[in-house]
Amino acid sequence: MENGNSRKWAVAQTLEALGSARIVLSPEERATIEVADFGLADLENQGLQLITYINTNRYCAKELVLLPRQTCPQHRHPPIDGSPGKMETFRCRMGTVWLYVEGEPTLRPMARVPRESELHYTVWHEIELHPGDQYTIAPNTLHWFKAGEEGAVVSEFSSTSRDEWDEFTDPRIRRLP
After folding, report:
1. For residue 133, what are the contacts with CB-CB under 8 A and spacing of at least 6?
2. Where do the domains of the chain lie?
3. Dihedral of CA 83/156/168/113: which sign?
4. What confidence tens digit (pLDDT) does each residue in 19-64 have?
5. What is the CATH number of domain 3-168?
6. Count of CB atoms within 10 A of residue 115's CB?
7. Which end of the chain has fewer CB atoms < 10 Å from its terminal CB, N or C?
8. What is the torsion angle, in degrees rounded to the nearest 10, for the CA atoms of residue 64, residue 26, residue 37 and residue 73?
9. Which are the contacts of 26, defined by CB distance < 8 A and separation ≥ 6?
C-alpha cells in the first residue's frame, strides 16, 4: 500500500474501531489521528494509531488503536531531564491486547512477532487485557503489545509523553518521521 493510501486506510480503520468501542471524537480530534508506522513501512503488522487528548508537563491522555494483529514494537520510556520516564496505565476498551513487559517469561505466549523483527523482541512476560482490564507500566520498562484478531482500543493515562525520546530495541525504527 502506498504511504498516503496506507494512512487513509489506517485512519478509516481507526475510526471504525473507535465507533465499535463507542468512543466519540470531535472533528478536531478526527483530523489529528496519528498513524505511526515507525519507519518500517509495514503498518498492517507493526504500527499504531493514536489520538492525543492532552499532553502537558504533568499528565497525558490518549487513545491507542491497534488494527487486527497489529504490533506496537518493543520500547521503553527512559528518564529525561531528572524525570524517571513516562509511567503509563493501559485500560482496554475493546478487543484483546497482549502486553509484554519485563519479568518471568510466559511459557506459551499468545502473540507472535513479525518474522523479520524477532531478534528485537526480548521481553515475554504476558499480560492479557480485555475490555475493562488495566495495567500500569513502570517508567523505563521494556514493553510491547499486540492486538488480537478483532483489533483493540486502549485508553492510555500517563505522565508527560515525550515520544521523540522513546528507545526502541529495533535500530531501524524511527518513532517520529
Report:
1. 91, 92
2. 3-168
3. positive
4. 999 999 999 999 999 999 999 999 999 999 999 999 999 999 999 9
5. 2.60.120.10
6. 7
7. C
8. -10
9. none
